[in-house]
């Protein structure tokens, strides 16, 4: 086809490629969810329907994109992690972020009437999400990122649980509750919950305390006792030269991933145990599909 005089505009398209051999995290976040949650009367501080809906949308994103190794969500945000050796997609930030955000938003709206069946239907302004991509060069950086989000979940949830207990059960107004919690430590909040309201924070739902983690489920392995299993996987995944896999090998792995069940759990992802028992998350190699799961 002949070049047109307009074609020069292509030069304006600049690369936005993400550094090779790094872990890519795409985090999305609900836009204006403070207002949105009020409009649809989300329960405070945690609305089970809203969190289940976020999880359902994230699970669908994962099943459409087998390159995502793990996802973690809390409140109106979700982080999706691409393995550093994953080569099946273009490492372009804009392409990756827009694919994830649009797929997630589409499913969020699709699932809305299922999770909010007794609520009013969605009307404009419709829910939307922003997104960003960040690359992490080492397994430790990636694990610290995941730990950061889960610690954030814990801190916010303990604060919000205490804050709303003071208001809903203690009859306080927002300003007084805020003043009371100013400068308090975790132990103080646990104490307020227990002494004033008989609430044992430990008995709060796991989803509220830990957030949600989504991954493909294979047969778990016993954590190694001799050498730290996570370190071993981390060493393997931290090679300077990215592993080159043949096309057939990549296809085989993709197929194995597609077969695996995608689960939503509420586990501690800060401690080594979570990663040790599930070496496929860091190694990028699919594990064994449990027998009872095979079609
Ligand atoms: N009541 C209730 N509100 C929630 C729940 N999950 C998220 N939210 C709301 O969503 C907000 C998320 O925080 P942000 O992302 O910082 O606030 P935002 O209004 O979405 O602002 P931007 O992200 O900057 O657009 C919280 O402050 C809550 O108001 C929930 O389960 N229940
Ligand atoms: Mg938000």
TrEMBL record:
Alphabetically ordered keywords of this record: GTP-binding, Magnesium, Membrane, Metal-binding, Nucleotide-binding, Nucleotidyltransferase, Transferase, Transmembrane, Transmembrane helix, tRNA processing
Disordered: annotated span: 226-255
An MF annotation (GO) of this entry: magnesium ion binding
Positions that bind Mg(2+) 2: 29, 76
Thg1 C-terminal domain mapped to chain residues: 140-271
Domain spans labelled tRNAHis guanylyltransferase catalytic: 6-137
EC numbers: 2.7.7.79
Residue stretches of biased makeup (Basic and acidic residues): 244-254
One protein family per Pfam: Thg1C
Organism domain of life: Eukaryota
Transmembrane residue ranges: 96-115
Cofactor: how and how many bound: Binds 2 magnesium ions per subunit.
Gene3D superfamilies noted in UniProt: 3.30.70.3000
One BP term from GO: tRNA modification
Cofactor (UniProt): Mg(2+)
Keyword Transferase in record: yes
Catalytic reactions of this protein: a 5'-end ribonucleotide-tRNA(His) + GTP + ATP + H2O = a 5'-end phospho-guanosine-ribonucleotide-tRNA(His) + AMP + 2 diphosphate + H(+)
Residue sites binding GTP per the record: 75-76
Binding site for Mg(2+) 1: 29-30, 76
Function: Adds a GMP to the 5'-end of tRNA(His) after transcription and RNase P cleavage.
Family designation: Belongs to the tRNA(His) guanylyltransferase family.
Protein name, per record: tRNA(His) guanylyltransferase
């Amino acid at each position: 086809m002949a070049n047109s005089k307009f074609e020069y505009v292509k030069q304006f398209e600049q690369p936005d490629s993400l550094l090779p051999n790094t872990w890519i995290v795409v985090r999305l976040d609900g836009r204006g969810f403070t207002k949105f949650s009020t409009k649809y009367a989300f329960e405070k501080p945690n609305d089970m329907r809203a969190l289940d809906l976020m999880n359902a949308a994230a699970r669908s994103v994962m099943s459409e994109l087998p390159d995502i190794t793990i996802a973690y969500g809390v409140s109106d945000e979700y982080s999706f992690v691409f393995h550093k050796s994953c080569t099946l997609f273009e490492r372009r930030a804009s392409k990756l972020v827009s694919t994830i955000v649009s797929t997630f938003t589409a499913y969020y709206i699709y699932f809305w009437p299922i999770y909010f069946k007794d609520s009013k239907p969605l009307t404009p302004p419709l829910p939307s999400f922003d997104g960003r991509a960040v690359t992490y060069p080492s397994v430790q950086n990636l694990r610290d990122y995941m730990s950061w989000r889960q610690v954030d979940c814990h801190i916010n949830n303990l604060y919000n649980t205490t804050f709303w207990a003071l208001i809903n059960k203690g009859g306080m107004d927002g300003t007084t509750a805020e003043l009371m919690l100013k400068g308090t430590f975790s132990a103080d909040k646990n104490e307020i919950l227990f002494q004033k309201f008989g609430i044992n924070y430990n008995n709060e739902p796991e989803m509220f305390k830990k957030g949600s983690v989504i991954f493909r489920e294979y047969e778990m392995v016993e954590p190694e006792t001799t050498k730290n299993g996570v370190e071993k996987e981390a060493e393997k995944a931290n090679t300077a030269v990215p592993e080159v896999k043949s096309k057939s090998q990549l296809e085989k792995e993709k197929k194995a991933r597609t077969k695996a069940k995608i689960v939503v759990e509420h586990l501690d992802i800060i401690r080594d145990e979570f990663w040790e028992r599930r070496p496929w998350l860091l190694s990028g190699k699919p594990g064994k599909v449990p027998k009872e799961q095979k079609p």
